[in-house]
Amino acid sequence: MLWIAAAFILSLRMPGANPEGALSVLMEPDGTGTWRMLIAQFEKENPDIPIQMVEGPPATNAREDLYAASFLSGKAGFDIVYCDVVWTAKFAAAGWLRDLTDRLSRQDLNDFLPQELEAGSYKGRVYRIPAFTDAGMLYYRKDLVESPPVTFDDLERQAQQLQNRNRWGFLWQGKQYEGLTTVFLEILWGFGGEWIDAKTKQVYLDSREAVKALEFLKKTIGTISPPAVTSYIEEDTRTLFQAGRAVFLRNWPYVWTLVRESPVKDKVAFVPMVHAPGESSAATLGGWGFAVSETSSRVEDAWKFVKFITGTEQMKVMYERMGRIPSRRNLVPAEFVPIIEKARMRPAIPEYAQASDILQRWVSAALTGRPGCEEALKKAAEETRALLGHAK
Amino acid sequence: MILPYTKDDAPMRKARGIVRNLQQAGWYLPAGILLFLVFVYPVLRTLVLSFLHVNLESGFQPVFAGLSNFGRLVSDTRFYRSMQATLVFVSVSVLLEFVLGLALALALEQLKRSGRFFRTLLLIPWTLPTAIIAILWMWFFNDQYGAVNDLLLRLNVIEAPVAWLAQPRSAMAAIILADVWKAFPFVLIVLVAGIQAIPREMYEALEIDGGTYWHKFRYVTLPHLLPFIFVAVIFRIIQAFAVFDLVFVLTGGGPGGKTETISVYSYYTFLRYMDFGYGSALVLVLAGLLALIGWTLYTLLLRHYEPGR
Amino acid sequence: MICVWSLIPVVWCGLASLKSSEELARIPATLLPADFTLQHYIELFTRRPFAAYYINSLVVSSLSAFLCVAAAGLASYRLARSPKRFRSAVSSSLLVMAFFPPIVLLFPVYEIIRMFGLVNQPWGLILPYAALNLPFATWLLTGYMELIPYELEEAAAVDGLGPFAIFRRIVAPLAMPAMTSAFLLVFIFSWNEFMFALTFMNLESARTLTAGMATLSGAFSQEIPWGLLAAGVMASTIPLILAVFVFQRKIVAGLTAGGIKE
Fold first, then answer.
1. A68 contact residues in B (CB cutoff 8 A)
2. Which of A149, A260, C169, C245 is close enough to A154 for a disulfide, judged by CB 3.0 to 4.6 Å?
3. Could you give phi then psi for residue A164, rounded to 5 degrees?
4. B66-104, pLDDT tens digit by residue?
5. Closest alpha carbon within chain A to C180
6. CATH number for the domain harbouring residue A382
């Protein structure tokens, strides 16, 4: 019983309250301590604006849920939003983000990567200022591959030639989740196909190109890619590639920093994703930025922070310490430029989550079983049209 | 059926004044307040929401929808598929948990002293946090470097690594495996206590009459255990319907949406699509179904025992 | 034998937490740590305020368990002495409430917690946890309370004790086994609960163990730090397992004492 009493006292003493007047933002786990450092820098220059960084779970969707829960449960939630590239449309449509268009200087507008800016906009207004960018690319073992593949056929051929009992040809993420959408889009765009036109709400999933794209992916399973590829996420594929178990890997830039400390360190290089002859390579745009929440009571201060954290110097720090590619044009490291140039954003529609889920489910279904590629895409297109038409 | 715990509802046999009423009701007050805040209010709110459209489209403003959410539910194939997946998952895993729990409970009973020790060890999986364990299971089930395949290969049970999570059937099997692993101790403990409550004399009587083990089991053990079995099963069913973390982390509902249980679908509807009206309708139907199952089992139970005489 | 099977994942986890990150990435996986290291544990405790987590989890779990059992105790005592119809009705409605998946309750409860300003306060979790387990606890305790002979109470009443005194002095001590079991069960539940804990608690210093563990990550947010995670699981579960070992008999008694009539 004594114990209970002690607990009771402790519970009342708990420092639950938020530090007075601090602006709060929900971030990813700060493994490298970089964010903390940047925030401390900001606070030094702006002593009257304390920032409270809340470290959230690593999983993107978990943080999205937390933001949603915070906004939906009324008034004061987070002041600043650490915003994924696909959240902008949804959050803006829900009225959770403040319009920042008029606060950007002409110079800034030119400085940022156009795709990133567009990804941070909704209906022509800017809501999210990009901090760093991301795009899918093709890693390969340069000690095995003579000249990197350019077309899908090249990839298939080389993968087939170079794989053996202990080494698969091509690894990608095939589990039913957002990653699958990003992978599929790269193949789709590489074939010249399209998914959804955000402006006209047209759906192109049942086109010839889409079917070809899906068929390509399906063909790799069991031939140049392990059957289990339909359960892999980024980490699975990275682990395998770093252990020397694959020739080609489609993944994100974060792998580049990690792979250089792995057993295969000097044997890896990367190129833009392959494409069909006559088409061009494409990469799915990733990236994160900062937005100001509509419910914040200290908009000016929040904006100061957003401006700071997306500044040139800060982006350089992010790159040096976290390997994150800056979203300002002149700061993109040379080796990534060809890839970033080809980066395309996913459709900026509020219903993005549902649309992506539809795509994931049907692609995954076709990859693992019964519905044929054409049929699956037709169904997916139907459902997506219903979704968007319904939403008008 | 739901009784609001208000000050006016005290159970009275001899009503001797308001003071006596209040005094009686006071016993229920703390429980009542807690229940009201955490259960009654949200449940009512869900009920109301299910008749409204509250989603992105409506700008999160409530728009009266009448029965259209329910109408949509009825023709929603994804709903039926998820119900199917859920029913498969629930029935198979609860069945396995039951069989395993029963077998082990009986075995433990033979062991006496050491039985206690093993019982504690066996309880451990149930005390682990599901959300984190789910991530670990994902690791275990990886076909290349996961522990499951590693072990099976070493034991020569399989020849080549199995891609557990890559195909719908094996993925479901994997999820069920992980769930049974975690939850069978619950059934085990309930049944063990049940077995211990059986009077020795009954067994001895049978032995004198020359009964075999099967006889003992069928005429003494089983009838006495029935109430316990029902209890364990009902609770497991309720919990199994609500399983979310395991499915979401292992497969995200895939591949091809085939392992998407109703709890995963609700999650998506509420949190990803932010369609609260429809999500509420979904949950209401689910709860209704559970209540039906529970009530059926409960009525069957009444013949054997009553929780609260 | 089955014991071994059910313990394998836990043991693997324990071993994993002691292997270096490089070894963890090796394929095929190794069994015993070749590269023994305590680095993960060190990182665990220095990177995050684990000490604060332990305290928070302890406080939240014990208080919610206590509150739940207390409230349930009071209610079920009365309930056990009530007429049959009322009791069945209450029991049934409690069961119905238990049917609702927590995900439904998350938003409304979050709203209420916000309204009362209890975000980041331990009571913001203690109250919901206590409430969530009330149906089960009440059901459990009511069954047990019925077993307590009414004559004892009558005797005490004759001696001039008021109803609450009767409860405190006579009934409660007698019901202690069931109450302890309920306490332990709610404790375990609160210790492991994840969804509410993550949503309601933002501040590092206010977080519970499970919520804190959910935010573990490697240097890059897409990287899953297996070693760290494994260490985290061990660090948060071992205390719990120890508690289980100590109270194992009571748990078993509690789970079944409640509802079964011979």
1. 271, 274
2. A149
3. -145, -165
4. 788 888 888 888 888 889 899 999 999 999 988 888 887
5. A1
6. 3.40.190.10
